[in-house]
Amino acid sequence: xxxxxxxxxxxxxxxxxxxxxxxxxxxxxxxxxxxxxxxxxxxxxxxxxxxxxxxxxxxxxxxxxxxxxxxxxxxxxxxxxxxxxxxxxxxxxxxxxxxxxxxxxxxxxxxxxxxxxxxxxxxxxxxxxxxxxxxxxxxxxxxxxxxxxxxxxxxxxxxxxxxxxxxxxxxxxxxxxxxxxxxxxxxxxxxxxxxxxxxxxxxxxxxxxxxxxxxxxxxxxxxxxxxxxxxxxxxxxxxxxxxxxxxxxxxxxxxxxxxxxxxxxxxxxxxxxxxxxxxxxxxxxxxxxxxxxxxxxxxxxxxxxxxxxxxxxxxxxxxxxxxxxxxxxxxxxxxxxxxxxxxxxxxxxxxxxxxxxxxxxxxxxxxxxxxxxxxxxxxxxxxxxxxxxxxxxxxxxxxxxxxxxxxxxxxxxxxxxxxxxxxxxxxxxxxxxxxxxxxxxxxxxxxxxxxxxxxxxxxxxxxxxxxxxxxxxxxxxxxxxxxxxxxxxxxxxxxxx
Length: 497
Ligand code: MV4
Prior knowledge:
- It is built from 16 helices and 22 strands.
- By secondary structure, the protein is an alpha+beta fold.
- It folds into four domains: about 100 residues, Rossmann fold; about 70 residues, Dna Ligase, domain 1; about 240 residues, 2-Layer Sandwich (D-amino Acid Aminotransferase, Chain A, domain 1); about 45 residues, no CATH class.
- Helix 4 runs antiparallel to helix 5 and helix 12 runs antiparallel to helix 13.
- The longest helix has 17 residues.
- The termini are far apart.
- Ligand MV4 binds next to strand 8, strand 12 and strand 13.
- The site of ligand MV4 has 17 residues, from strand 8, strand 12 and strand 13.
């Protein structure tokens, strides 16, 4: 592969292209009209506009993307995450066009894309799973029997769902029939598949996922875990590796289960096996994600492996470049997702221009971003501005560096989740490691953010200062602190406490 097209946008497109460049591979960006000025477009060796801003007309337009790839003599397509990354039909089309899809086979994607078939496969390989129905619910009497056997509360899940979509907790048998019907019709209209199943509801779980890598020679390895329990409405906020609760024995057991699942579908490339961990440290297989995940950097930091490089290596038909025994966890890494959302206002997405944008730097800090100062955050896509990743010799150092990096991060023009991330880093439940998936709903209230309210005069001054002194064309920057009371001007200062 000498030329790779990245069928994605933003930070992940840029991140993938960087590794391509490391490997001496040429890159092609495809972009929508909303992303004309995005750094990933500029970074690519070639870039082609594929349509209007709406995803359906651009980043999800499989035929158009493949047409561009053929025209430009592209040999591989990297799908990133989201968009077409887990679309088996796309992977088939790419292959039929004589291009390598940098990811697993369409067969593996189909098998793992459907929760019931994934569980069915896992069952053949002795993988622990939450007690529940054996397959889809077809009969209400049977459902009642299963529910009584596993014990209430139970959880109804949609086979075609994922990431928490279409789940319903049911507390008692009286509500079961109605809830199953509702869940099934919801699943039918949302995913085109009404199949639902039952599991015992695990009350205070941790979400721990294992990074795996497979090749086309039957090899599979695990690259340890990521702890992703700090999430809000199924959107991850903080991820870290390693988890502070796993013992070496449980880590090994989970890793080996994940490898068995990968081997069960002849998995090739980077994948993630999700588990729930209960308060007694029992783990249960949930689902497998057949893509490179947003939070992959924390795994890269603690293993020293470039996961994208390895994806490309394996897609070229090579064996995985390392052995399980070669892998070792060194240090600790934390990632926070910086969204253009207002944590003080129920995480309402905020749109606007990045008037000031200065990412943090220095020891143990990595920022994967896709924006530059002066850019608008497009309304058409996910509102993630960047991923802020820190590394330290241990968890404490990684947390301290995260707090320092958050304080250094200067963003104005839009509200961001940075103050919320700092709140998490300073919370006792987080620092002590004693938290579960209910962290945010249990501990977070907007009043806790310590935000000094910005008055109108200050905001206007901030806008003025940003335009006059920090415009991109004006390279000779006048330091902000030379402006009277400049420290109260923009909202990053408000996070100090
Ligand atoms: C569960 C569960 C409790 N019990 N399954 C949510 C996302 C999807 N991947 C599975 N999810 C859950 N499945 C049983 N049997 C609780 C969740 C869950 C959750 C899981 C991981 C991370 C965050 C979560 C937030 C709420 C619920």
